[in-house]
Each structure stands twice: as C-alpha cells, then as structure tokens.
Amino acid sequence: MDIFMQAAIDEARRGLDEGGIPIGSVIVHDGAIMGRGHNQRVQKGSAILHAEMAALENAGRRAARVYRGSVLYTTLSPCSMCSGAILLFGIPKIVIGENRSFVGDEDLLRARGVALEILQDPDCMALMRGFIAERPELWDEDICTVS
Asked: Which residues have C-beta within 8 Å of that of residue 123, sequence separation ≥ 6?
C-alpha cells in the first residue's frame, strides 16, 4: 500500500478512536506530508472540519505554487465544500481511497482539470462500512449525505 494513503487511513482511524467519523486526509508535496487531518465534526462540534479541511489547516500558510505542486490523499471522495477548497488552492491531483460509500463532487473536480485516482481500497471501504453500520444516525446527520 502507498505510504501516503496509509497515513490518511491512520488519520481516519484516529478520528474513529476519538468517537468521530473515520475519514482521513494528507497533503503531500515533494514526497513529504505537509499537512494531515481527520474529520472532527463530532469531536470539535465543527461544521467544517472535514478531513481535507483539517489537512489544509494543518498544512498552514504556504505559497500558492506549493499547493499547485501537491497531491491530496483522502480516504473518501471529497464533498462539495472540500472540493471547493481543493479548487481554490489549485491542488492538481487527488488520490481517493474509496467512493462507494459516498461520491462527492468528482465531476466538478474533473471538469476543472483535477486528476483523480480512485483506489477502492479495502481498508477504506471497511472503515466506512463498519462505521455506517454502527453509527447510522451520525452518518445520516452529516451534510455530505443529504441528497
């Protein structure tokens, strides 16, 4: 397994261990993780701390060229909010652990030139499948699942 997707999975597990939603993300530039995060909506009572947003926040202030040369790894397909942030920062490539539990704004990302690599990783799918089965009320509360 790719070490960067494994780091995102480790973040997702950290979120689950904290009582939250098991979604993790890392941002990689020049072969090194510059930001990592996990969904913290539950833990911090936040409306916006999805894994991708947390990873961006933890990456901190960087020159635009740094983000434009980065790859974002996330265990689940990015929602509209996270996709907007990806576009705003100009991140050119996203590696998605799985999109069977939820399909985010992949069409928008592709239309704007972002390269997507979807792994359908068994660990990512198992994390979400188990979480949704055990905590359907929490999953259903997330804005991402509203259709």
From this structure: 1, 9, 97
Contact call for residues 20 and 42 (beta carbons, < 8 A): yes
Q: pLDDT tens, 112-145? A: 999 999 999 999 999 999 999 999 988 888 765 5
At residue 61, the pLDDT reads 95
For helices 122-134 and 3-17, give the axis angle rounded to 10 degrees: 10
The reported pTM is 0.95
Of the residues 11, 52, 57, 117, only one is catalytic, namely: 52
Alpha carbon distance, N-terminus to C-terminus of the chain: 33
Note if 137 is an active site residue: no
Q: How many residues would you count in the chain?
A: 147
Nearest to 27 by CA among 105, 113, 90, 118: 90
Structural tokens at position 110? 């592709």
Give the mean pLDDT per block of 10 residues along the chain (147 residues). 95 97 98 98 94 97 96 97 97 98 96 98 97 92 60
Quick one: which of 35, 141, 21 has its CA closest to 75?
21
